[in-house]
Design goal:
This protein has seven helices and three strands, in the order ααααβααβαβ. Strands 2-1-3 form a three-stranded antiparallel beta sheet. Helix 5 packs across helix 6. The protein starts with a helix and ends with a strand. About 6% of the residues have low confidence.
């Protein structure tokens, strides 16, 4: 049990970049893709919006369109989500797509500004 706790502590201390590298390494090693859980996780958000109509303190950041600077948008999506190049490109090319769910207001506005700064169209739901 102590080994499992040590692994959890080690994982908790990873930076975002290290966690993204670990995810890519495990995808290659196990022959799976982290892109599928992102798409599955996006589905429940549609039904949860009805109860939060009163006062929103969390938003879903939606990439509505990539705009003319698709490469810069892909780079920004990678930075925000921690996904690999292929997965980020699929999200950008498949817009509109949910990028992050249940994001606090301040962070949602910051992500929106970053994405719009590189030419994307973003919606907060």
């Amino acid at each position: 049990m102590a080994d499992i706790e040590k692994i959890a502590d080690d994982l908790s201390s990873l930076t975002v970049m290290e966690a993204a590298e670990l995810a890519k390494l495990l995808e290659d090693k196990w022959g799976v893709s982290a892109a599928a859980p992102v798409a599955v996780a996006a589905a429940p958000a549609a039904g949860g919006d009805a109860g939060a109509a009163e006062e929103k303190d969390a938003f879903t950041v939606v990439l509505a369109a990539a705009g003319d600077q698709k490469i810069n948008v892909i780079k920004e999506v990678r930075a925000i989500t921690g996904l690999g190049l292929k997965e980020a490109k699929e999200i950008v090319e498949g817009a509109p797509k949910d990028l992050k769910e249940d994001v606090p207001t301040a962070e949602a506005n910051e992500l929106k500004e970053k994405l719009e700064g590189v030419g994307a169209t973003v919606e907060l739901k």
